[in-house]
Amino acid sequence: MAGDTDFKTGLLSAVPSLRAFAVSLSQNSDRADDLVQETLVKAWDKQSSFQPGTNLKAWLFTILRNEFYSQMRKRGREVQDSDGAMTARLAVHPSQHGSMDLGDFKNALERLPEDQREAIILIGASGFSYEEAAEICECAVGTIKSRVSRARTRLQELLKVSGESDYGPDAIAAQVMGSNAA
Amino acid sequence: MAIAARWAEDTHSGDSEPRMKPNVKKEDAVERAEPLGSNSEIGRRLKQYYDELVTEEIPDRFADLLKQLEERETGDAARKGE
Predict the structure, then answer these.
(1) A–B: how many Cβ contacts below 8 A?
(2) Nearest CA-CA distance, residue B15 and chain A, Å
(3) For an interface test with A, which of B1, B26, B36, B68 has the most A Cβ atoms less than 10 Å from its Cβ?
(4) Using an 8 Å Cβ cutoff, are B36 and A161 in contact?
(5) Which domains are seen in chain A, by residue range?
(6) How far from the centroid of its chain's Cα atoms is residue A135's Cα?
(7) ipTM for this prediction
(8) What average pLDDT does the segment B60-73 reach?
């Protein structure tokens, strides 16, 4: 079937984004690849429920996210421990370059609660709109906005980013993020 | 796709992509262009972190998997047809 080939091509071209999102969620590249694999199998089996012309990437992100949280629930506490160990091993040591390097940023990102991490990734990196992110996370748009806002504030605290107000984004943030007086 | 539009400000390099419409309220335009703030260090780091992940080499296992899924389906269809 021609539709199958298109669908397959669509899945394959989404793999880099899916992997990036999976690593961001799980903070573990082996687990991320397993998540992507499971997502592809599920997507293939559920192909008939995908409406051609709608956002395939958002649909796949939703499947991956559901898979991630369902695995979290199944594995429970044990996973948190092993992931912690894995995270420590994968952590990049503070390096010589610059004040805030990518390793520091990764460490800070890891310390965010999952709901905030996924929100800021979807909005700030994966390129989804607030509406799309809300659909992927099955929550209200306002919830996504407030999670992004809290994530951003927390990252700024963790990374001791200062002087952003010199450029004016705090004024923008007030607009974008809504009520985040804290 | 919406993504392209949203980050057009980032990649704008004098091509034919139209700039923001002048009558769009400024804060609306800013929100669309850069949700984390256009000069946000956090926003830049986040994209750097993510872009590094996106551009990693993709293991063959995913292409192989999709090939297997497709073959399995073709096989199923052929068997049903017999």
Answers:
(1) 126
(2) 21
(3) B36
(4) no
(5) 1-90 (1.10.1740.10), 94-182 (1.10.10.10)
(6) 14
(7) 0.75
(8) 92
B30:A175 CB<8 A: yes
Helix crossing, A29-45 with A56-75: angle to 10°?
120
Copy the structure tokens of residue A88. 């420590």
Alpha-carbon separation of residue A128 from A9, A48, A156, B63 (angstroms) = 21, 24, 22, 25
The reported pTM is: 0.71
Instruction: Pick the closest to residue A116 from A148, A156, A140 (CA basis).
Output: A148
Q: Which of B35, B36, B39 sits opposite A167 (nearest CB)?
A: B39
List of chain B residues whose C-beta atoms are within 8 Å of the C-beta of residue A129: 2, 6
User: For residue A122, which residues of chain B lie inside 8 Å, CB to CB?
Assistant: none
- Residue B81 one-letter amino acid: G
